[in-house]
UniProtKB/TrEMBL annotation:
Transferase among keywords: yes
CDD domains: NAT_SF
Taxonomy, superkingdom: Bacteria
Official protein name in the record: Acetyltransferase (GNAT) family protein
Record-level Gene Ontology MF annotations: acyltransferase activity, transferring groups other than amino-acyl groups
Amino acid sequence: MDSAYRLVLEPPSVDDYLRLRKESGLSARTREEAENGINGAWASASVIHVESGESVGMGRVLSDGGWYFHVIDMAVLPDHQRKGVGDAILTALLDHIDACAPNAYVNLLADPPGRRLYERHGFTESAPASVGMRRV
Ligand SMILES: CC(C)(COP(=O)(O)OP(=O)(O)OC[C@H]1O[C@@H](n2cnc3c(N)ncnc32)[C@H](O)[C@@H]1OP(=O)(O)O)[C@@H](O)C(=O)NCCC(=O)NCCS
């Protein structure tokens, strides 16, 4: 990621959170969901485009604070993708985890756009031993 961008270990605003999810193609969430959840993560990272001041990327981590860490909300606005922003966000979050819990169990649910990024950071598919499941 070059100097056009600045990374902070903070969540985006509620407005930016909703916009980042929607415009990056993740499911849209309600304002109430965002307001209730935005400060609930164990760690958050945001990337700001310095010239415009716009929030262009984010990632968050849910955790018990001991050993269990779940990466969520990885999203970069389309105009700013493929410039290393997602990599910088994931690197910052994983460095923070490693500093706090050297033997952490770190997992995520990988949508296709993120899979190569996650693989570069050491993630492998958990199946067939463990399959991600969600309630529908
Ligand atoms: C997944 C996502 C967060 C990745 O963000 P990103 O900022 O594009 O990620 P990066 O730029 O670090 O890496 C993406 C690619 O760009 C390449 N890249 C990085 N810097 C580059 C540069 N300066 N020039 C050209 N390519 C570059 C990387 O090598 C990588 O290539 P690969 O995917 O072919 O291996 C983003 O694609 C996204 O928001 N997708 C939609 C939402 C989504 O699906 N999120 C994941 C949910 S699990």
